Amino acid sequence: MECGRLCSIVPGFRGRVVVRDLGRMDLLRQRLLELTALEQHAIVVEARYEDFLSPDKVHYWSAAFCARAIADLYAVFPSLRLVFCSNRKTAAEWTRSYFSAGLGRSRSRWRRGGRLQRRGHRAAWS
Fold first, then answer.
1. Around 124, how many Cα atoms within 13 Å sit in the side-chain half-sphere?
2. Domains in the chain, please, with CATH?
3. Measured distance CA(54)–CA(71) in Å, rounded
């Protein structure tokens, strides 16, 4: 952000796109791997998690398959923020707040010189 490089990204997906992409899990994992290389990353899904467990809403796959696939994404990418929002307005608000918080952190680190200090087992910005 302040450093002139891309530090944050939040792609948004509609629920039906996620359902479609679950069938191409290798491609989806590759995209997520690229996404997690960034300092701040998240995926906003414009659907409730419950929608993926409803046979009426997931036409291509079974609800059990969708639940396993989403659980697999959480297991393979534990640092990934996968956020389910019930509508586009909520997704946009979450994304705006996320970028605002990230920008605030980035600016405060930049003002302090961005020195990274070790504290115990965790790294913390000074």
1. 6
2. 8-125 (3.40.50)
3. 16
Contact of 71 with 36, CB cutoff 8 Å: no
pTM of whole model > 0.85?
Answer: no
Q: Which of 43, 30, 120, 123 is nearest to 79 (CA)?
A: 43
Q: Which of 36-40, 46-50, 110-114, 115-119 has the lowest mean pLDDT?
A: 115-119
The Cα–Cα gap between 77 and 24 comes to 17
Beta strand 116-119 with 122-125: parallel, antiparallel or unpaired?
antiparallel
CA angle 39, 40, 41 (to 5 degrees): 120
pLDDT digits (tens, 9 = 90+) for 23-69: 788 888 888 888 888 877 888 888 899 988 988 888 778 989 989 99
Question: Which residues neighbour 71 within 8 Å (Cβ) at sequence distance 6 or greater?
Answer: none
CB 83 within 8 A of CB 45: yes
Checking if the pLDDT of 109 tops 70, the result is no
Which tokens sit at 95? 């994304």
